[in-house]
Amino acid sequence: MGVILLSMKTVDLMLSARWVVPIEPSGAVLENHSLVIHDGRIVALVPTDQALTQFQPAEHQQFVEHALMPGLVNAHTHSPMTLLRGVADDMPLYEWLQQHIWPMEARHVSEEFAHDGSLLALAEQLRGGTTCFNDMYFFPEVTAKVTTQAGMRGSIGLLLIDFASAWASDANEYIQKGLDLYDSNKTEPLLSFCFAPHAPYSVSEDNLRRIKVLADELDLPIHMHVHETAQEVNEFQARFGMRPLEKLAQLGISGPNFLAVHMTQLTDAEIDFLAESGTHVLHCPEASLKLASGFCPVHRLQEAGVNVAIGTDGTASNNDLDMFGEMRTAALLGKGVSGNAAALPAETTLRMATLNSAVALGLADEIGSLVPGKAADVIAVDLSELESQPMTSPISHLVYAVGRHQVSDVWVAGRQLLRQRRLTSIDEADLRARIIEWQKRIAAARH
Ligand SMILES: CSC[C@H]1O[C@@H](n2cnc3c(O)ncnc32)[C@H](O)[C@@H]1O
Ligand SMILES: [Zn+2]
């Protein structure tokens, strides 16, 4: 016994579970395996009986009726917009943006708005099993700070839009503030950055050229709403004599460092072009459905070889940050739109919300699957509930049957941020009080 103990490796944490869904190297489910974690990284994923003879963990948690899987990666959102949840429903994109959201943002967006809205987004996402999100909003330095304070992982958008806001008055200031944010945080382990020009219709060609030069110089991805509605494409065509994607191709923006959000309007030739250029598509099915923007042809994109990731978009159009719900919608919609029940099977959809999102964000070496060497961004999903019975297939249940309330525990870089459904790094009571104040302020301004 003494000899065995001596040869055992001391590690920080062992998570043993009935089921583990690592996503890579195979999409298969492992039974009775343990994840071994040290210094925030996965050091082994082995059968539990083997793990117990090889490793001596400082902490050992056992999940007898749970599945462990990689944290979900929300490929597109606008965190502070949680404060605008439910303010403008049941209308199309331009009416929603121009008559409701932009005027409300002009009235309310501030450092404090970005702080409290981001905190609410972090809390909602962690409680729903999302461990990393890709953001685009005003005051990104505030979102970045709250994210690191909470211990979550974030890809922060260096925003550009051609109108003055509480954050910046013109393109020069937007770009400079973005670069300053990047410079002062580029070594922060939980943060990464994307340039985030809002859309082809809201950022001039000259400014897009500037972003392209900077993105090449710093080797950062560019993240942008593109071909969201037919109206966008038609109006752009009337103004510039070409479709937005063609303009972006002309500017050299499309390619493996380009993340195109929505993409509901695509010709066959454009699908081929996206595949050839290595452009990533960030699919936000619920926001596109709610705004009746159109349908992203996900199955055709995947058949062509395009990397398609899943995002929620913001809560003013979704209206939640529920990546389990989003996976289910993506899978069902993908079948409906393609007329093919075999399109977007559960395993593919789970991969879209984890590894594909990580690939799009340039983070696949770090997150998106449970592979030794990667960061320990892990979630435990309780499958003991009646609603998950009988346990015919964990992967099927995770996509088609599980609700986000079944996420019991969450770790980011090996740090536990949700323990038996309680947040460990965010004060829920304080957050609730702040949100009630915002509710009053926003309601008062509307009357
Ligand atoms: C300038 S920060 C981001 C900007 O985007 C707005 N927004 C949120 N959702 C969408 C969407 O689906 N399409 C276009 N613009 C969107 C948000 O209100 C902010 O102003
Ligand atoms: Zn968006």
TrEMBL record:
EC id: 3.5.4.28, 3.5.4.31
EC category: hydrolase
Residues annotated to bind substrate: 105, 198, 228, 313
All residue ranges annotated as the Amidohydrolase-related domain in the record: 68-416
Catalysis performed (reactions): S-adenosyl-L-homocysteine + H2O + H(+) = S-inosyl-L-homocysteine + NH4(+); S-methyl-5'-thioadenosine + H2O + H(+) = S-methyl-5'-thioinosine + NH4(+)
Pfam families: Amidohydro_1
A GO term, aspect molecular function: 5'-methylthioadenosine deaminase activity
Residues annotated to bind Zn(2+): 76, 78, 225, 313
Keywords, ordered alphabetically: Hydrolase, Metal-binding, Zinc
Coiled-coil portions: none
Cofactor: Zn(2+)
Cofactor comment: Binds 1 zinc ion per subunit.
InterPro entries cross-referenced by the UniProt entry: Amidohydro-rel, Deaminase_MtaD/DadD, Metal-dep_hydrolase_composite, Metal_Hydrolase, MTA/SAH_deaminase
Top-level division of the source organism's lineage: Bacteria
Protein role: Catalyzes the deamination of 5-methylthioadenosine and S-adenosyl-L-homocysteine into 5-methylthioinosine and S-inosyl-L-homocysteine, respectively. Is also able to deaminate adenosine.
Recorded family membership: Belongs to the metallo-dependent hydrolases superfamily. ATZ/TRZ family.
HAMAP family recorded: MTA_SAH_deamin
Name of the featured protein: 5-methylthioadenosine/S-adenosylhomocysteine deaminase
Species of provenance: Ectothiorhodosinus mongolicus
